[in-house]
Amino acid sequence: MTTVVTGAASGIGRATALRLAAGGPVTLVDRDASGLAETACAVVAAGGAATTFVVDLADADAVASAVEEIETVAPVTALAHCAGVLVTGPVLDATADDWRAVLDVNLMGVIHTVTAVARRMAERGSGAVVVVGSNAGVAPRVGLGVYGAAKAAAHMAVRALALELGGRGVRVNVVAPGSTDTPMQAAFGGAGAAAAAVAGDLARHRLGIPLGRIADPDDIACAVEYLLSPGARHITAQVVTVDGGATT
Q: What digits encode the pLDDT tens for the residues 160-169?
């Protein structure tokens, strides 16, 4: 048995890989080979076991081949899909390339990966999937229209899949983080991003964070771990928002 973690090269994906590796072998997937190797080393240093696959999740054929190879070694019992890319700016300024870049990974990458894994889980009659979405896919955020649209579409697609697979022993849920201390957050907000997220900005229709801090990647990993665990056996088709109360 193995747990697959995509987007494992950094940020939430790395934190999730380290947390889930305490429960058994993990298979780490990302297109960033060097970051993936660093995560694998961290897993091993913590006493876990990891294998790695360098895959562009926007490539359906590459994803299918990787999942087939993983399954020849061990059945995938859990999937944490954490991969994502960020494009910011006004919707009116977004180019076709901007839309394509985000949709290829944040929507189609989810579809390619989740369906390839969940199809096999359904055949076996058991499995759990968690997709890391975003609170930008739950409520609109100024400057995140393209990103949020892709995340919202992914949320709905996987929730519909959860309903289709509920009778076949497979649970599918979404964890929707808010501002989180990751390289993606730093790229979006620059210096002072954390303080700005906590304070909020009514001119941008952005609420602050009632808990007074942005998330640590492990805060999100904990939610993923729970939804993949037997303790969440009666939870499916849900979006669990983990943003310190920023979305109300």
A: 999 999 999 9
Output the DSSP codes for 26-56: EEEEES-HHHHHHHHHHHHHTT--EEEEE--
Question: Which H, E and C letters describe 60-87, residue by residue?
Answer: HHHHHHHHHHHHHHCCEEEEEECCCCCC
Q: What are phi and psi of 234, to 5 degrees?
A: -110, 25
Residue recorded with tokens 């579409």: 153
Residue 147 falls in the annotated catalytic set: yes
Q: What 3-state class would DSSP assign to 10?
A: coil
Q: Residue for token digits 């995938």?
A: 76
Rg of the chain taking only CA atoms, in angstroms: 17
SS3 245: coil
At the top level of CATH, which class does the domain 2-183+218-242 belong to? alpha beta
pTM: 0.95
Over residues 4-47, the pLDDT tens digits come to: 999 999 999 999 999 999 999 999 999 999 999 999 999 999 99
Catalytic residue (one of 84, 132, 136, 147): 147
